[in-house]
Specification:
Uridine Diphospho-n-acetylenolpyruvylglucosamine Reductase, domain 1; five-stranded antiparallel beta sheet; 8 helices; 337 residues; binds flavin-adenine dinucleotide; four-stranded mixed beta sheet; Uridine Diphospho-n-acetylenolpyruvylglucosamine Reductase, domain 2; alpha+beta; globular; 20 strands
Length: 337
């Protein structure tokens, strides 16, 4: 567990921002992590826990210690006729776990195929796509408290999961390191095909719904729709879809009949932030190397040499324009550092 100095983070963030960490170290087990946390640097320097770097924006060099999680392992703990309970190391690549589960004929995360990042970050913002959220399959989250080095477990209920939200973004923000996550997956296929273009894609491929085929459809759709961070730096959806009062949505619909909204409760509607940005004429908008993707208005991109500050300034400009045009505040989904 060598602690390195002035370490480049360019290859550790999918935005491809050139920034450095004053100190950088990897840990591959809970014991290694606890040992690192005993180091004086952990008591004196700001800490940042890094997964795959696919949901962060570095706006400056990190003047502290970055701890990168490489804890591996996928193991079936319990199984019965209906389900399997699986323990997964926080350093496993999320998509590898999805493929592993499909290989074992388990269902529950096939719709979340190809989401970048590591398993440890998945409860953090309750990753979701194509009608599923990871909270639907998490039973417990295991973590180490940074302050005490103690190992703790939270049940699904205690994680306070919400839309792209959890206790790890609030009360436990920067206080814990998630080391493993326990999932319960079904032996009966869920076959959730109604969201997005899954049904259409299956039809085009002449495939029946099954976890494997749904994941294939999702992989195809995502590969067509989203820019590959290896080619064009980005961190997926930059903003969350705002949730507004249904009465406000109905008023806005009079002015903007095409506005896209999904009813989420009797009084609340979730608005497609991508539509708001696109309809404000910002799709493809570019300032130097920071831009709004030409096909996906919700995705901000680094055309090569954008700094984190240029990206965040672009994000602020978009937020102001959306507020002025629709009276709606949009907030970043991405963690800004
Ligand atoms: C092309 C693209 C598409 C995407 N599509 C989706 C999508 O469809 N749905 C979706 O929900 N997200 C999506 N994302 C966002 C991203 O993939 C997820 O948020 C993912 O879970 C981030 O994982 P990570 O390991 O890269 O986390 P990082 O970016 O490394 O970290 C994110 C946050 O989690 C914290 N963190 C990471 N690991 C730990 C840990 N072990 N313990 C404590 N804190 C930790 C970090 O400190 C940071 O605050 C997309 C991103 C990209 C680039």
């Amino acid at each position: 567990m060598k602690i390195q100095q002035n370490y480049s983070l360019k290859n550790y963030n999918t935005f491809g921002i050139a920034a450095t960490a004053k100190y950088f170290a990897c840990f591959s087990s809970e014991n290694e992590l606890v040992e690192l946390l005993r180091n004086d640097l952990c008591k004196t320097e700001p800490l940042f826990i890094l997964g795959g770097g696919s949901n962060i924006l570095l706006t400056q060099d990190f003047e502290g210690l970055v701890l990168a999680n490489t804890i591996k392992g996928m193991e079936v703990l319990i199984e019965d006729n209906h389900s399997s309970t699986i323990e997964v190391g926080a350093g496993e690549v999320w998509h590898d776990f999805v493929l592993w589960s499909i290989d074992k004929n388990l269902s529950g995360i096939e719709n979340l195929a190809l989401i970048p990042g590591l398993v440890g970050a998945s409860p953090m913002q309750n990753i979701g796509a194509y009608g599923l959220e990871v909270k639907d399959v998490i039973t417990t989250v295991h973590f180490i408290e940074i302050g005490s080095g103690n190992s703790k477990i939270l049940s699904n209920e205690d994680c306070n999961f919400g839309y792209r939200d959890s206790i790890f973004k609030h009360e436990l923000k920067e206080k814990v390191v998630i080391t493993k996550v326990i999932f319960k997956l079904s032996k009966t296929p869920l076959n959730k095909t109604t969201y997005g273009a899954i049904e259409e894609e299956l039809k085009n491929l002449n495939l029946d719904p099954s976890p494997k085929n749904i994941s294939t459809a999702v992989i195809n759709i995502r590969s067509r729709k989203l820019p590959d961070p290896k080619i064009l730096g980005n961190s997926g959806s930059f903003f969350k879809n705002p949730i507004i009062k249904t009465t406000q949505f109905e008023n806005l619909k009079r002015e903007f009949p095409e506005m896209v909204g999904y009813t989420i409760s009797e009084t609340k509607t979730k608005i497609a932030a991508g539509w708001l940005i696109d309809n404000a004429g910002l799709k493809g908008y570019r300032k130097a190397d920071a831009g709004v993707h030409k096909n996906q208005a919700l995705v901000l991109v680094n055309y090569g040499n954008a700094t984190g500050l240029e990206i965040i300034n672009l994000a602020k400009e978009i937020q102001e324009k959306i507020k002025d045009k629709y009276g709606i505040s949009i907030t970043p989904e991405v963690n800004i550092l």
